[in-house]
Write a structure and sequence with these properties.
By secondary structure, this protein is of the alpha/beta class. The protein has a domain of 222 residues: FAD/NAD(P)-binding domain (3-Layer(bba) Sandwich), CATH 3.50.50.60. The chain is 34% helix and 29% strand. The strands form 4 sheets. An 8-stranded mixed sheet has the order 7-6-15-16-17-14-18-21. A 6-stranded mixed sheet has the order 9-3-2-13-20-19, covered by helices on one side. It has a 4-stranded mixed sheet with strand order 1-12-11-10, with no helix packed on it. Helix 1 packs parallel to helix 6, helix 1 packs parallel to helix 8 and helix 10 crosses helix 11.
Amino acid sequence: MGANRTSVAVVGAGPAGLTVANLLQSAGIGTVVVETETREFIEQRPRAGFIEEWVVRALEENGLANRLLDSAQRHDSFEFRYRGQRHLVPFTDLVGQHHFVYPQQELVTDLAAAYAGDARFGATDVRLHDLESDHPSVTYRSAEGTAERIDCDFVAGCDGARGVTRGYLPPESTLVAQHDYGFGWLALLAQAPPSAERVVFGIHPRGFAAHMARTPTVTRYYLQTDLADTAEDWPDERVWRELHTRLAVPDSPVAEGPLIEKRVLDMHNYVTEPMSHGRLYLAGESAHLVAPIAAKGMNLAIHDALLLVRGLRDWYAGAPETLARYSADCLPRVWQYQEFSLWLSEVFHHTPASTDPFLARVAEARLRRLLGSPTVATAFADMFTGKDADF
């Protein structure tokens, strides 16, 4: 078995893992990145596209946002479509923050290019060892089939919801809080130009719909579905019929095009507490999943990465208390984003067609208050943009 020694073994090469690796590299702390997928796969896999401004500024401060700042669209508002009318929410005017539209695979490509350290793609059979000791290790099989071991001081578990690292938290001392929404979202990518200048949230008796520009020629759409639905239940004709219906307002047609992605998302959330065990520290969806209702997942992953790097830098500088607070420092924002996602879901999905007319009317009252009160709209915009969410 081949053996190597480094300071931090980073399992997972998504936004969290590559941010951790780049920032530790800049601090002179050795890292090795282990990723089960190929580099080509992670750089092409379609994922979330909205990055909050505070995240962009943090990446910019560390020299990791050059291409993003050059090419990303900036959004300053979104609109609800409800009962055939547009309702604009100008969040930048309210709180001075933008959303940047930059698909996750583009950010991953940038972060992978910036990382000059040791990255091992195509790893299989990844396992963690001796996490409660001062000398943990990671073993795996390389893409060539060779057994490898990385000895390290710490393991950063950044391999997402389906990764292996979260399984190493002991169940007897770990709380996993979960919430299932009871419906699905049909996630769609269309080779079609955006049909609006901004994000559109359609609230309709037939179910929720959303329009989100990705590039000048590709648009992301979502449709609320029954939980049991599959992509095969949604032929293209049905998809476009429902999008036209649920997003309909006068003089604003939906631009059609070939559907290049079609998959049903099981809408659920979870949070793992604590986000660490021994020398293992989880970041991103290894520790918490937030459904894409409020586009918070990638932003939370980078938030975790920033705090984890701060803790590790302090530990190597002789101040271990910052790393000891890692979970406690991460979780306030995690729970604020979970609460906001749940609140927004209740506005989006409890329509008059709901089986619970009481909750449907409550959701309508919330929407009226949001659209009618500048104070409520400002508080909403604070959470929508992630401004000052650490409380």
